[in-house]
Fold this sequence. Notes:
By secondary structure, the chain is an all-beta fold. The protein has one helix at about 5-10; strands at about 15, 25, 40, 70-75, 80-85, 95-100, 110-115, 140, 150-155, 160-170, 175-185, 195-200, 210, 215-220, 230-235, 235, 240, 245, 260-265, 270-275, 300-305, 315-320, 320-325, 330-335, 345-350, 365, 370-375, 385-395, 420-425, 425-430, 435, 450-455, 460-465, 470-475.
Amino acid sequence: FRASAGYQNRAPMVYVGANDGMLHAIDGSKTGAMAGVERFAYIPLAVYPKLKQLTDPNYVHKFFVDGSPQAGDAYIGGAWKTVLVGTLGGGGRGVFALDITDPASFGPAKVLWDKAVTGDSNLNITDDADLGYTYGQASIGRLANGKWAAVFGNGLNSNNKHAVLFIVDLETGAMIKKIDTGYGGATADNGLSTPSIVDADYDRIIDYVYAGDMQGNLWKFDLTASSPDGWKVAYASGSTKQPLFVAKAPDGSRQPITAKPEVTRRKDGDLMVFFGTGKYFEAVDRRVVTSPAPQVQTFYGVRDPGSAITTGRATLVQQSVIATVKQFDQTLRVTTANQPTTTQPNGWYLDLPTAGERQVSRPQLRGGRLIYTTVIPNSDACHAGGDSWLMEMDAITGSRFAYTPFDLNNDNQFSASDFVTVTIDGREQKVPVSGKKYGDAASGGGVVKTPAVIDDAGREIKVSILSNGTKNVTPNNVPPDELGRQSWRQLQ
């Protein structure tokens, strides 16, 4: 399918939701008559009842198609197709799928399905009590029963207020399986965030799904059975379903998990899950309340040992920010280099040190490096929404690197000249940093999510657009063991 002329010659497309109530499909060609032209737009079912509000003279801002769509290739209807699965974010309780194999011929027949909760009896649909505001994103993959599916969390503020995994037939929209964690309710309003699908045995079939919820639970779902009847929450104590891990702040309060986790395999064969905590989608999240002190948020790297981790932080290595310095005309962070012990086999954690700081976007794994950004909100209208940090550290241990990840002195070299001088354990040392703040000095700050990464002749370029409209370009070091020959075969 990918090698076919029809696939290779398709126009590049940009799909973006907007608060006019539409998902817009824009031709991304650089030249030609269609370059930059909108080929079609789609109005999701869940926003229909709200469209009339746009003509109200007293209209105030509301979200409509506010989710970020995902696309993938799948074999459905007897042929390979490209399918887009869209969500509404804060715009409503809905998920939809479109056949975008040939964007130039899009029409009503290319709408595969549209699930919505509207509360409008005139639309003749049955509201799903488990479907909430779909802030998360869907994943597309093949299941052990041979079906291709959209896999997504149920979102927030559903009627049932539980954390539920949806597994939906990609072609028809039929519900293949809903897996209710059983956690949530009137006293613990809950919802499942963006899941991460995992093919553990490399056969291109989904084996496991990891996802966090608003109550700090990191869930593992087991989809290895050939029948959906065997799909379930992976861990349990008797009849009680158990999360792999529960994220709790130093004061013992549960930390919300709202971003998609990343997953890798350790050298010992165990899977390891990376995720941060905090939320940034309600009006109250745009400011930092100083009294009472805001909840401390954390980044975690948690091993999956094959059973639920009930010991909390006690069996994780603690990493910390031990210095924040202003050098090279930048604000930089130095973190610890602690290593795991036999009593700390289950991963690591790092508490984010600034009041109100949180981690709300997908982390990245590049080789053995973990890369993530954080957000520190600011309600000042002149401050572009807040500030962000770019953090990089060893994925498996959470330790700072022995080498510099950044070219801090702009000499196009990654060397000890990029180290900073700090006092550690009572003595002055020159060490590499683990983080740099975006938007210092004249830019006035700005919020950043997951950066784009471009490989560039032995280094990486991370490109971000800050919420203040400025562009940030950060050259990054790729350590020597990530370059060169990665495998070999003996010929004689």
